Amino acid sequence: MTAPRPRPDRLFPIDSMNISRRKKVITAIILALALLLVSCFLPPRPFDEKKWRAQVESTDPALLYAPHLRGGRYFNPWMPMQRGFMSFLRWVISEKTPYPQAEEYNLPPVISGLYKRIRSTPGDFIAWIGHSTFLIRINGEYWITDPMFSERALLPKRKTPPGLSLDEFLALPGRKNVIISHNHYDHLDSKSIRRLSTDTRVFVPMGLKAMVNNFGKKKVVEMDWWQTVSCGDRCQVVCLPAQHWSRRISQNTDTTLWASFLLVTRGRKIYYGGDSGYFIGYREIGRLYPDIDYALLPVTAYAPRWFMHYAHMDPGESLEAFRDLGARYFIPTQWGTFRLGEEPIGEIPSALSRAAQSSDTDPARLLVMSIGQLLPIDNQKQKFEQ
């Protein structure tokens, strides 16, 4: 009697898990190819600037003070954000706005030797390290905004180096203070925060204290919108609203707050806008805190407008925010380092110049800095270090 042949699946067991994974991979490849094909035919969505402006103007200023936490998630009560995966998907697969090839390489100049110039410069100053990272020295203390020294902001890679290395920053004498505006990776860089000394004082919006504590920082001041804390002799930090959102891989959407900040010291007020879309809050901040000396405002990731308009400002809106604040000088932030929107990261100087001309803004009040540039602060006279 002939013995029965063993079934092939007994000799070579079929791994149902591998088959399932294979199907998923094949499905993902087919979907990616389909999206790529669709993107060749899907034009950018039009955007109505007048309608958007009317929506901004119709918001109630009283809502700037309304509760902004519901069910464990923060929101902008004056104009809650409408988001959806389909909108994001459409942006990904839509045709991209063409820009002149030269603008892709028009990066901001990088001035070397900032550490030596800091050590040899007496008095107070503002220096641009790159992206949203600014180093401010006032009354002998250092303040740094959204310290980002890493090569990548999760995925986007730096196009320009920081004007000061993290080791050089750590070597500076005196107490150091950090202001963090929100938890996006280009603003809250865990590698940079972890390397700061344990006694560094860190000011963060609501919900971020535990994370920064886990990064090894113990002196963390968690603040809500419109809250003021003392930071020394005639020194205050004011936490103020911004129109944005929050998300990290380790944190769900909007479970931590986003904010702008005002640093008030003897005879000086410096506003740091973090990341924000244009909203009526700038007028209220300017009304409550007149005579702001410097407004550091974001100008980036504004294209395409139909997708980016809520959470980011274009050059015209940033200039309007500057006028709303009533500040003396405007310093653009968050450009020239990471490409986050469709627009070239180096187009901001020319775009701001055009916007200033069309709005009759005095160009002398626009301080477009180079990376590594140091701006001495003097109540009587302001000038760039060339």
UniProtKB/TrEMBL annotation:
Check the record and name the InterPro entries matching this protein: Metallo-B-lactamas, RibonucZ/Hydroxyglut_hydro
Which Pfam families does this UniProt record tie to the protein? Lactamase_B_2
The record, for Gene3D superfamilies, names:
Ribonuclease Z/Hydroxyacylglutathione hydrolase-like
Q: Which GO terms describe its cellular component?
A: cytoplasm
**Where in this chain does the record put each Metallo-beta-lactamase domain?**
145-333
Q: Know the name of this protein?
A: Outer membrane protein
